[in-house]
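This week, study the protein below.
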Amino acid sequence: MLLICAILTIFFALILKYLTRSFFHPSVIVGLAWGITLLLYLVVEHPLWRLSPEFLNVFTFWVIPFMVVSYTVSYHPNHIAYSTNNLSYNSKLFNILFPYVVILSILLIVLLIHYSGGVGENLRTFMLEKNKYPLIIRILIAINTFTIIYSLYALLHYDKVGKKRVILLITLLILISFLKSAKGAIFRIFIGIVFILYRRQSINKSKLILSTIILVILLILVTVFRNDSTAQQDDAFIKYLYIYILSPITALDLLINQEVNPIIGTNGSASFPFLFTVLNIFGLDYTFTENPGWVTVPVFTNVYTAIWGFYSDFNWVGVFIFSIIMGWVWGIVYRLQQAGNQIALLFYSATCFSLIFQAFGDFFIESFSMDIQMLIYCIILSNGVKISPTNKNSNFPQLKIFK
């Protein structure tokens, strides 16, 4: 039954691809990501445990409503996207920010190496101890979130920005992600670049193949650089694929069947960690539900797909309801960017990678504060900001949005 479900999900996603004319539509991404992952799990030889029938229910309650709702919300009789050639470009703001972005990125690279005592094991150990970061490192890492949006904005307007500056920005981003051993950041950058090129109609098969090869090489290097347990074996990369593609499904199945249990906190905190963090800042004392941590499936994993929080808080009903909500959100964002809204286009390019990796982990809800920051940066770069002189009714300078 699981095999039939996987095949039907892929088939449904391909139908939606035909209707939307895009592999980047959220319904297509989620359908193919979950369907292909489940199909691989069932047909490829691996050491992971067999999935239970109960997994099918949760799978269906998440994937199908998401696909239907995101397609319905974003539906338009004419699925042709508006050209990116007419998007506004604020050369004054971009040129003012460019030297600061480059200098601060280089400074982050230098300080990461300096404070860790070098690359390799020293840097890896340093990056794992986030609570011990010097203040300057914390600030520069926070600024790096802006650099991601800034670089995608530059790529979107590379004919005006200049290819050399775009290449410099992206190279710095990748180098920082490599030093941080941040595989998620590398995926975010890669998928964002591909989507921007796709929207600019500048992507072709040779560019896509070359980019994919570079991505695979980077991921292998990061795996070795991090000294992951799998990298100690001759079949390191195969085990790496087990962990980062297939094993989270097994872990979720264990959670569904209560063979492992989350660390219970306030109800809803697994689904909305950002909200409860904000509430605690204002003096409340909510506890957080945490996933069960490292488990053997039989390889070690500590990720439980993107839906573990909804299931832990509200069972399958929560999975179904939040599938509808998330499908609606992503459908709206996609339709806006399709209609030529630059804010939505930049935001979607920076976050749509999370849809591809839903069967692995949550890169959207759990990093919601970062998502909000990115949305603000998208607004600033798309509309511009300026400080005007104080007026007679205020003692403070006035911050205004302008194009």
User: Anything to note?
Assistant: Residues 394-399 have pLDDT under 50 and may be disordered.
